[in-house]
Design goal:
three-stranded antiparallel β-sheet, single chain, binds carboxymethyl coenzyme *A, mainly alpha, about 425 residues, about 5% strand
């Protein structure tokens, strides 16, 4: 790289060179601007998994994976988790700044009055088997939202975009709770405007028409923290999916649905569910060695779930906060000697001392402890990824909105390195 911020790309075969500009962000590594590369050289870059590619510019979230730093709009996640609640964080992600007291009042009111879903939407659930995975029903129902708001889906209109964002944030807890209730055969519970965002979700999950759900402030705070820690995470797989879907001009509910589908995978949002299943399978501290051995074996597909991250090559700051929350919740419930938590602590200790995990910089990620917290909150394992989707919806919609407003935005259309057959002639079936 030279001082005037460009790089020279030298092709040793053709003895040609090409100059490419280097762009700088506020913080973080510079990027080589390759937009003119194909025009100048006739070549593309090759980067499966986008390990070296910045797909867009963004002002929402910053991660320094080596230092274990996570900032939303410049604010450290630790401070947000301590001083704000989830709806304040939603406001920040959507509108770039933290709200004043007055702005917050207006925002809470707006979200609260959009929590109910159209009554026709409840019919969708009845078409599913009771044992359907909640993520399957949520993908379908969120996708169906676009069928209810035809007249307010102009993606070029900021008012419509804001309304879609509010509707999504407001209705996700209702939809997620309904998926749970349907799978257990319990009646749907309507949202209650007197309750806060997280309290309302707990109410819709756990109350019955016969009995109120008694809120515990420690548990409400824990759920709120789960929501804050999962609210956004830069250009991860599901957010990139939302941006790619949105780049064609698809409506916001369709785009968020594509994000939910992507999140479902075990390498992404499905990991919290997988962690709990793994801990249950390990069952006892004496078996940890056996599972660590399997995780290191190249011929065994088993991976230590809740460990490793594409970006964090140091402690995931969210995992530290989640570990503390786990302590708080288990102490509050008198479960501090919970065998699964003790197993998780021991597994973490052993893995962090193991050469394989040290060498590959594999640390616990946010999902390592979030499952244990959710289990203590009475949320069934099968619902864990749905909770992640509920929290991440604000991040997805903030990125979608940023993308639509970006003057440099184009339809996403990567190229490929073709390795199939070269051109050949078709022989009629009788001659094959
Ligand atoms: N257990 C054992 N080995 C691992 C693990 C693990 N959890 N994670 C990575 N490795 C090894 C991997 O085998 C590879 O070894 P080698 O270089 O010898 O081939 C090396 O570490 C690098 O792994 P990678 O798969 O190339 O790294 P990646 O950046 O593509 O994958 C990951 C990141 C999160 C998908 C991966 O670490 C993983 O599968 N972890 C378990 C699933 C998990 O906890 N996912 C939640 C991610 S955080 C929540 C979210 O954002 O969704």
């Amino acid at each position: 790289m030279t001082d005037d911020n460009h790089v020279i790309l030298q092709n040793e075969t053709t003895k040609t060179s090409c100059e490419l500009p280097v762009l700088s962000g506020t913080i973080g590594p510079d990027v080589i601007d390759i937009r003119t590369l194909s025009q100048k050289t006739g070549m593309f870059t090759y980067d499966p998994g986008f390990t070296s590619t910045a797909s867009c510019s963004s002002t929402i979230t910053y991660i320094d994976g080596d230092q274990g730093v996570l900032l939303y709009r410049g604010y450290p996640i630790e401070q947000l988790a301590e001083k704000c609640d989830f709806l304040e964080v939603c406001y920040l992600l959507l509108k770039s700044e933290l709200p004043t007291g007055r702005e917050m009042q207006g925002f809470v009111k707006e979200v609260t009055y959009h929590t109910m879903v159209h009554d026709q939407l409840t019919n969708f659930y009845k078409g599913f088997r009771r044992d359907a995975h909640p993520m399957a029903t949520i993908v379908a129902v969120v996708g169906a939202l676009s069928a209810f708001y035809h007249h307010e889906l102009d993606i070029r209109c900021p008012i419509d975009r804001n309304l879609s964002a509010i509707r999504l944030i407001a209705k996700m807890p209702t939809i997620v709770a309904m998926s749970h209730r349907y799978s257990t055969g319990m009646p749907f519970m309507y949202p209650q405007n007197r309750l806060g965002y997280v309290e309302n979700f707990m109410h819709m999950m756990h109350a019955t028409p016969c009995e109120d759900y008694v809120q515990n402030p420690v548990l409400v705070r824990a759920m709120d923290r789960i929501m804050i820690l999962h609210a956004d995470h830069e250009q991860n797989a599901s957010t990139s999916t939302v941006r790619l879907a949105g780049s064609s001009g698809a409506n916001p509910y369709a785009c968020i649905t594509s994000g939910i589908a992507c999140l479902w995978g075990a390498a992404h949002g499905g990991a919290n569910e997988a962690v709990l299943r793994m801990l249950e399978e390990i069952g006892d501290k004496s078996k940890i060695g056996e599972f660590i051995k399997r995780a290191k074996d190249k011929n065994d597909p088993f991976r230590l779930m809740g460990f490793g991250h594409r970006v964090y090559k140091n402690h995931d700051p969210r995992a530290k906060l989640m570990r503390n929350t786990c302590h708080e919740v288990l102490t509050e419930l008198g479960l501090h000697d919970d065998p699964l938590f003790e197993l998780a602590l021991e597994l973490e200790r052993i893995a962090l001392e193991d050469d394989y995990f040290i060498e590959k910089k594999l640390y616990p990620n946010v999902d390592f402890y979030s499952g244990i917290v959710m289990r203590a909150l009475g949320i069934p394992t099968v619902m864990f990824t749905a909770i992640f989707a509920m929290a991440r919806s604000v991040g997805w919609i903030a990125h979608w909105d940023e993308m639509i407003s970006d003057k440099e935005q184009k339809i996403g259309r990567p190229r490929q390195l073709y390795k199939g057959p070269a051109k050949r002639d078709v022989i009629a079936i009788s001659g094959r």
